[in-house]
Amino acid sequence: MSATPDDTKDNAEEHAFRLRAREWLRTHLPPRRLQDEPMMDWADKALIARDRESQRALWEGGLAGITLPREYGGLGLDRRYADIYYEEAQPYRLPWHFGNAFNIVLPTLLAHGSEELKRRYVPAILRGEHLWCQLLSEPSGGSDLAGLTTRAELRGDHWLLNGSKVWTTGGLDCDMGICLARTDPTVPKHAGLTMFLVDMTSPGLAINPIKLISGTVDFCQEFFDDVAVPADHVLGEVGGGWAVASTQLGAEKASMARGWYEGLAAAVESDEIELKDEYGRMARSLGVHEDPRARQLIGEAFVLDAVHTLTTRRVSAGIRNGALPPTAGTLSSLLVALCDVRRSALLSGISGPAGVAAKPGEEGLQWGMTRVTRHRIGGGTTEMQRNGVAERHLGLPRDEADIADRTVPFNRRKVNPDRAQ
Questions:
Q1: pLDDT value at position 143?
Q2: CA 190 to each of CA 162, 201, 391: distance values in angstroms, whole numbers, following the listed order
Q3: Fewest C-beta atoms under 10 Å: which of 196, 238, 355, 412?
Q4: H or E segment at 373?
Q5: What would the CATH number be for the domain defined by 133-245?
Q6: Prediction pTM value
Q7: Is domain 14-131 classified as CATH 3.30.70.20?
């Protein structure tokens, strides 16, 4: 069962905020209907528009950017007020298409942006005007982000970007993108990168949706042909893009570890473990709810969910109170990926042939296949996330070939070097 909000912990100011949020949410946001609609669907233009309207309404209602600084349009309150807001928002649909903007762009912009950029773009997000995407992966880059080849050249008062990006979530519907490009090929690959803020409607930027085998069109590929970016739209320092990207990727991993969509999971920690009804519902719909093997698989899925929830909660609490270093977040991010992979296997075992033979949108295909194809790469592949845990959290040495690769000027690197030699 879900825990209910406990207002006995509120002081007078917090309680007043709770009551105001409760009344405002009741009259302004649409109800949550997760059985009928997804959290995010970039093919559903009406749902995207509704999320834009909801974010605008939150701004006008004084409930946007609760913990963000006042000078950038936020309320400047502490985390307790955000927790109260999410407790009260449980029955309602929040503007989840703004996940990239809030989870990734805002932390990166606040950490590295100039005052002008922060004052311009943070309020635009809070007002629901700008959806954002990440322009990182490239067709030839694989998991080696620092090996990207999209280039940027300074021409007077603007930069010209040329190259291609791929696997961009929501690229076709986003207003702005945060883009990593190479500005100096004569230095080692990590040193010659710069982060840009790109208007997704810029001339010369072609955006092509990618239709997956599941029928979804969440991802896009972009082609840059002399796309002009103002010189002041550099995030961080020219040549300092890797530091900005590290903040960006860290924010992404932290968001995935906590569940990505704030306000989706229960905001109140319960002393009881909640068992998801969809596992049993799925088994019943497929007629295997009495099968001993199916029941065993559902039991393991319940245990997996509990381990995931409790471990993530412990890591988050440890980082907050200083008992664990910030690098412990890499453990939660890897845990999410591994749990998703194992959960996919369990649910595929329950669904059997229906997991791969059902029509798009039917229960079997939803649980049997799409979770495998999507969540092995969210926040980086599991291989890359294991490297992150090993190198950043455990302090293990890097691969010798990787160390050597970091010292060679980018334009002198061998393509596909033979690492066996």
A1: 72
A2: 19, 29, 17
A3: 412
A4: helix 370-375
A5: 2.40.110.10
A6: 0.82
A7: no
